[in-house]
Amino acid sequence: MERTIFTKFLFRNPSILIFLGVLSVVCIAVTILGEGFGIGIISTSFIKTLGKTLCLCMIAIAMDLVWGFCGILSLGHFAFFGLGGYMIGMWLMFARTKMIVMQASVNAALPLTPAEISDAVGIQIFGVVGGSDIPVIWSFADMFWAQIALVVLVPGLVAFVFGWLAFRSRVNGVYLSILTQAMTLALSLYLFQNDSGLRGNNGLSGLQNIPGLDDVPQSLLSISFFLASAFALAVVYIIATAVTKSKLGNIIEGIRDNEARVRFLGYNVESYKLFIFVMTAIIAAVAGALYYPQAGIINPAELAPIASIYLAVWVAIGGRGRVYGAVIGAAFVSLLSSYFTGGQAPDIPLGFGTIRWTEWWLVLLGFSFVLVTLYAPKGIGGLVDRLPRLGGR
Amino acid sequence: MIRFFVRLFLLSLSIAIALPAMAQSDFEEVLSRNSKLIQKSSSKTVGPVLEELQNFGSNAAENFLYNWKDKALYFIKDTGQFVYVASFPVSADGKKSAVLRHVETGEALGEVLASTIKQVKPNSGVRAKIAAAMVPFQLASDDAELRAASLAALSRDFQSSHLLPLKKAIEVETLPDLKEQMKRAYIFGVIGYGRDNAEIETAIYSLEGDLSLDVRAALNPLLVSQVLVAKQLPEDVNLARIIIPEKTIKHDDGSAGRQSLMMSSEYELSLAASYDLMAAAGLAPPFITPDMRNKILIAATVDGRIAGIPVASLASEESRNQAYQALVDNGTAPPMVGEAERQKAVASAVFYAVYDNPSAEVTGAARTVLKSINVRVGIYKFLDLVLDGLSLASIYFLAAIGLAITFGVMRVINMAHGEFIMMGAYTGYVIQLFIPNYTLSIIVALPAAFIITFLAGVVMERLVIRHLYKRPLETLLATFGISIALQQIAKNIFGTQARPLTSPAWLDGAFVVNDILSISNIRIAIFCLGLLFLGLLVFVMKRTRFGLDTRAVTQNPAMAASMGINPDRINMLTFGFGSGIAGIAGVAIGLFSKVTSELGSDYIVQSFMTVVVGGVGNIWGTLAGAAMIGSLQKGIEWFNPSNTLAAQTYMIIFIILFIQFRPRGIIALKGRAAEE
Amino acid sequence: MRKVLLASAMMCAVASQAVADIKVGVLHSLSGTMAISETTLKDTMLMLIEEQNAKGGLLGEKIEAVVVDPASNWPLFAEKGRELLSVHDVDVIFGNWTSVSRKSVLPVIEELNGLLFYPVQYEGEESSKNVFYTGAAPNQQAIPATDYFLEELGVEKFALLGTDYVYPRTTNKILEQYLKDNGIAASDIFVNYTPFGHSDWSKIVADVVALGADGKKVGVISTINGDANIGFYKELAAAGISADDIPVVAFSVGEEELSGLDTSNLVGHLAAWNYFQSAESDANSAFISAWKAKMGDERVTNDPMEAHYIGFNMWVEAVTKAGTTDVDKVRDAMYGLTFPNLTGGIAEMLPNHHLSKPVLIGEIQADGQFDIISKTTEVPGDAWTDFLAESKVLVSDWKDLKCGMYNTETKSCVQIKSIY
Q1: Residue in A30, A97, A123 closest to C390 by CB
Q2: How much is the pLDDT for B1?
Q3: How far apart are CA B458 and CA C346, in angstroms?
Q4: 3-state secondary structure of B313
Q5: pLDDT of residue B21
Q6: Largest pairwise CA distance in chain A
Q7: I need a labelling partner for A177 at 20 to 30 A (CA). Which of A131, A221, A244, B237 fits?
Q8: Is B466 inside a domain boundary?
Q9: Is the pTM of this model over 0.80?
């Protein structure tokens, strides 16, 4: 019974089928071409880039839901992404450090007491930033499942409190954007402090080394994370499509188009907005939790307001109001960025000087945002819409 | 050419050979005996040398000290002989040589290659010592400048030997200003080195109500105290305070006090520290810390066992204590002091502090005078904080005021606003490259920055923003794109280094009320500029035709158009006007901090918050917003001085909460204009 | 999207097959906040490589520089580091400035057994098998400068001002302990941290001045980084604080930073480094004129540039000695190598991957250069400081003990890989 509903749902939304198809082809191709299981044409570093790109696509979908469908231009979703990363990072760091301490303690004159173990771990983790005590917020860092739960709970709670306050007092439009920006700025400033207990500017590092899997080469880990990210992306894509095609989806699109009218129709607009805000925050957090073990390090600069603006730009370029638009935008811009800043793009010699892409890429990117906003407000997704068979709606 | 070299060579040779052969004068003898100490001087070893030179007493010695201090002393590398250099002529082929003079007689010693001599470089510690040694010479000098200089040296490093020359100098001093300063210095001298307690007391009381730092610096050392412990309080000491462990706190004047809610100061002695004091004084057996216990345990390990207990089982505090107790029972370790015993021991002793200065009259006088000073210092500190807050507020206001027009009045989210500020600052830098006179260059830079950013604003409005008036959120994106492009272009043109934007000399320095309350001139200038802008803006918006048109167009473009106003033109000009003001703000901000391509992005989020908190669409609101944010941040810093980041974090959180309760800002627009 | 992915994949594949010459990776930020300092180092590397190629290259092959831009983005350092090692197959990497970026790239370098030369003064407490630290450890900069304050200037009260990140935090932690060991009371040490690029210094400067209220001589030890220095020194000058009253010694201010400032008001304040442009030696004059010829007359040289100069030349020598660019063999060849440094002495590579270098203290002059007023003999760099209880027992010796974190008390290797 359920199965048929699901199948029907799939067939009513061919974009999901197409998306899943493309995603699986990419997965298979990368697995075969990659180093871990395959023939090794694609380097591990590129697989990591691809894996991270998938996570970015995930948060782009979240952004698309909250902005493209619900009309809330949040300039703070990268904060949730970062928080998710921090939560998983705490476990990764703590567990790995504890293992190192335990290994070293074999040679100690006296067996370590629990207090001594925690001291030793504290010095290893916080010695870098001039501290040695383990802060209270690391209480659960030793427990994998608790910390996984925190990946969802902490960003969810922050989003809930913030959203509840903001929507209740009917802050909207540009004001809300600036307020969300203030939120992510406050969070990143808070994390920049060493006293915050998360190693300040240093952030959490060495996250690519999974505790207990020291002998597994990075080539295998990277492809595993890539596949995990692909799976998560697929799930998020289906959920996002389901939400947008449901009655809920109609209501939030209504809120985007005319909030007052929806309220007069008797809907509790604030609750709907809050639901979408918290849900997308959680999606962002999960994406972050998958992203940072691949990046290897998380630090407060990741949460800087500019990151969230970039996110909005990806979605705009990809085409908002379409789930696949977000995916296209995030993948396209972030891959292109990594191509141009990597120094791989050939310089263009002109008569009077050379155009170095590392120097001029941002200029190009900046002006293309302007052009997209001016002349292609529906983004790349808008071009896809013109192909009738792929349109999906 | 060759002949020149031969001559030079012969010359240097002749000096090298001839000089040591000459009979040494007494002065030269002193120098050559101390040559190592002078060449590579250290403030630790330079004392005897200075004393010898001081006692030598000749003009040459005085001159020598003077040149040594001013890094004008050289020595010949081969012989170590000290010389002065009259000049460094450079020959046609770029070889640098040096014309030498004798250190005692001043006679010419000929010319050598510059590379054969070496400069004597006393460090600033040595230079201060030399300056102090020169004080007796200089105080008696005829040159008022020298006397003033010696007074400055004296205030940095007062030595007891200065007391007498200073007293003499006061008697003969004719300049009233200098005489006052000398008297003051003498008072400090008496406080520091006087022998007669009554005289010291009078000196202390004469400083009553004086807020300058050196007064406190002279009085506070009198109140230094040492913490002691005894079974009973001794009677014949100059008691500063009685300390109750984990209860009393220490005041600055050496007295004790209770913890209060307002001040977060910690109690002076913890239980552990008190007990350690007792142990050190031999009043109690030492406390065995866990660390010491572990060391003793490790030392007692035999074949993996301690007193028969396997080491592997010692993974907890209790088991370690048990093992240690076993050692104590064996008699191989000192017994542990328990927590109860420690408390009992501490309760049985008296902890107190004694002033280093034995005279109760002197310390009493110092306490009284300091107390009255400190009350006033507290008031001025608060005033200084207010001034700091005002200054920060004026900077925020300046950064946000352009935005108050483009965002506040026109509702255009211009993320490139920060880059307009940056453009203004770079304009100032470029103009300084062409006009080296700083005053003139600033006068030119202000209008130039306005014109350039005005044009940039107009171009941007024409090309981009005009098309997006109906889509405010998309303006945000487009201007963000422009912002990163402009930032990168600036980087490509000017490089990544910070560029200097130097303020004219009359803006250097600070306006000083006293040692506590002062503000730098550049901040005053920014404050004035802020006020000026406020006035200008209010005038333009309320009193001019252009302002009226702008308000009409923003409130109802269609209606305004039907009244004969060209909305396109007005929008363009308004946007240009706002951008131009940002450009001027850029010059000011560049003067006070730095010019980099990231200058703008440092201010953009704060600027938006300033406008939103204050209330969009109202210039007074922006002023109120800036005032609130600036004073708030300084206020939070006051409570947590070592952490500026925390202050910023809490300020932003406060703003977020504030907007929950006043979503339209401090000064909210009413009526139709408030609807979007 | 698929097309993009495939295209990129093909491109990578092509890039990884094109192996030729000896490759030197340059991992310095060319954009973002750190570009200010790091671009100079990239140019230094390009100049050194150019000079080496003009001399006939290395092992008969040309040296090719592979420059990437990690854009002051710490995670990107790890990504670009991996790319350099696995895609471009570089033989050695010269790079990084901030400690965070080094900590970011460290796991990758250790995993892929790369070789990194790190040219900037840092906080110590680290010794990786795969990194050579050519900048100063705390005992080669911070400790001698503090000694200078204590002994020469008679400073009794210290203000430790720093930017809020690893290097200042760790350095100040070491210095606090060191000062306490030297009899300075905890209440006479004032510590303050400010964010990157801080510009509002009036209150902090006023606080520092107020420290003098108890009659003790106050000195400032500044670990303030980058741009923030400009505002700090401007405020100092505005407050009329002369170096005779409150001397400031900076560990992160060199010629490059001063070039953004009018230094006439700062004359007499201090900086401690292992190199100053004003050092008198023939090698230095040659280096400066080569640099100016390449980059322009107004450019200055600084300490990290010298570190790269020594590091690169030592690496060239080690490769020549080993006859290969193989990391393990080059590493073994590095130990004990000596190379004349630019200030007239000899730098030696120690088994703990640090250099022995002289410590110089210079006073700022009106022309933005430093007047060297104190120069020690060569000080061997110490990876683990002797002034913190937990580090005192640790030594690093990759030559004989084969361990970067060896506990001399328990006589065992604590761990082979680094703390990240």
Answers
A1: A123
A2: 54
A3: 60
A4: helix
A5: 45
A6: 75
A7: A244
A8: yes
A9: yes
Check CB contact of B260 with chain C, cutoff 8 Å.
no
pLDDT of A234: 95
Rounded to 5°, angle at Cα C271 from C270 and C273: 150
Distance of CA A175 to the CA centre of its chain: 24
User: Based on the domain organization, do B455 and B555 belong to the same domain?
Assistant: yes
- Which residues of C fall within a CB distance of 8 Å from B512? 240
Interior CA angle at B73 toward B71 and B74, to 5°? 120
Is C67 part of the contact surface with chain A (CB cutoff 8 Å)? yes
All residues of chain B having their beta carbon less than 8 Å from the beta carbon of residue C231 are 592-594
Test mutation, B470, B609, B659, chain A, max A CBs within 10 A: B659
Place of tokens 């802008």: B533
A201 HSE (CA, 13 A, CB side) = 22
Contact predicate B230/B280, CB 8 Å: no
| Chain C 329-388, residues with CB within 8 Å of chain B CB atoms | 361, 363, 371-374
First to last CA, chain A: 25
- Residue ranges of the alpha helices (H) in B228-359? 271-280, 290-299, 317-330, 339-348
Gap between the Cα atoms of B74 and B66, Å rounded: 13
Residue C18, number of CB atoms within 10 A of its CB: 8
Q: What is the pLDDT of residue A385?
A: 67
For A370, the domain range is 2-390
Model ipTM value? 0.84
| Confidence at residue C1, expressed as pLDDT on a 0 to 100 scale | 42
| B497 and B539 assigned to the same domain | yes
- Which of B495, B500, B645 lies at the smallest CB-CB distance from C262? B500
What percent of chain C is predicted at pLDDT more than 90?
A: 50
- How far A55 CA sits from the closest chain C CA (Å)? 15
pLDDT, residue C5, reads: 44
When mean pLDDT is compared across A240-244, B71-75, B585-589, B658-662, the lowest value belongs to B658-662
Fold (topology level) of C19-137+281-358: Rossmann fold (3.40.50)
Residue after which a domain boundary falls, among B553, B577, B607: B607
CB contact (8 A) between residue B508 and residue C237 = yes
Last residue of a domain, one of B106, B122, B138: B122
Q: Cα–Cα distance between B114 and B83 in angstroms, integer?
A: 12
Superfamily of domain C139-278+362-380: Response regulator (3.40.50.2300)
Q: Which of residues 199-218 of B touch C (CB under 8 A)?
A: 213, 216-218
pLDDT of residue A125: 86
